[in-house]
Amino acid sequence: MILPTRTGRDAHTPRPLTVKRGVNPHASGSAHLCLGRTEILATVSVEDKPAPHMRGKKEGWLTAEYAMLPRATTDRQARERNLQNGRRHEIQRLLGRALRASIDLKHFRNQTLYVDCDVLVADGGTRVASVLAGYAALHDFADRLIQTGRLSEWPLRHAVGAVSVGLVGEELRVDLDYAEDKVARADLNVVATDAGLVLEAQGGAEDGPIAPEEYIRLLMTGVEAVGGLLRDLHRQV
């Protein structure tokens, strides 16, 4: 098998990240994020109504939704109308867990925050790019609340990001594009904070088992890479 090569970055360097916040004038917060050729639009909406399971609680709730536009990929995909789609449901749960960890929901009692992440262009890593885009949109949302005086305390408690890491042949690579993801013999999606705390790791071996040391190396490399991506993101938002 001929393994894909990288141009312009080494094995431990993520693809270029660019982010612009405040791109949707109708949303309470928004961000357009590019990670290489993968593009995500994330928006934040607020509903003055508690989630059913949060009625009477002292905190609000955050939920996330994920969708891929029909021409996000090389071939047109049917528009996702089935909310029970397994992959979509799994990604939405990941996004919700990650983004709830980033925000102190005590500021939003009896409210529900919706973070919508739409994939405009897919070239691998759409779920990790959606975590980054969702966090950038929440950052925009939080900044608006402070600037308008609706909150006096910064509501974000953790900077949260994600990255993919994988073994392509014998080489550990950070932030796999689609061509690399297809041939990786093991891969993880690592969700972490800028302080190096792990929130989640999804994935595993694709071509037979790997040694525990390799798994740990994937995880630790991912955590370090998330820190770098978040520093880059914060310089832009």
From TrEMBL:
Phosphate binds at residues 87, 125-127. Its EC number is 2.7.7.56. One of its GO terms (molecular function) is tRNA binding. It catalyses: tRNA(n+1) + phosphate = tRNA(n) + a ribonucleoside 5'-diphosphate. Keywords: Nucleotidyltransferase, RNA-binding, rRNA processing, Transferase, tRNA processing, tRNA-binding. GO terms for biological process: rRNA catabolic process; rRNA processing; tRNA processing. Residues 1-24 are annotated as: Disordered. Residues 15-141, 158-224 form the Exoribonuclease phosphorolytic domain. Gene3D superfamilies: GHMP Kinase, N-terminal domain. It comes from the Bacteria. Belongs to the RNase PH family. PANTHER family: EXOSOME COMPLEX COMPONENT, EXOSOME COMPLEX COMPONENT RRP41. Homohexameric ring arranged as a trimer of dimers. Phosphorolytic 3'-5' exoribonuclease that plays an important role in tRNA 3'-end maturation. Removes nucleotide residues following the 3'-CCA terminus of tRNAs; can also add nucleotides to the ends of RNA molecules by using nucleoside diphosphates as substrates, but this may not be physiologically important. Probably plays a role in initiation of 16S rRNA degradation (leading to ribosome degradation) during starvation. This is Ribonuclease PH. It comes from Deinococcus hopiensis KR-140. The gene is rph.
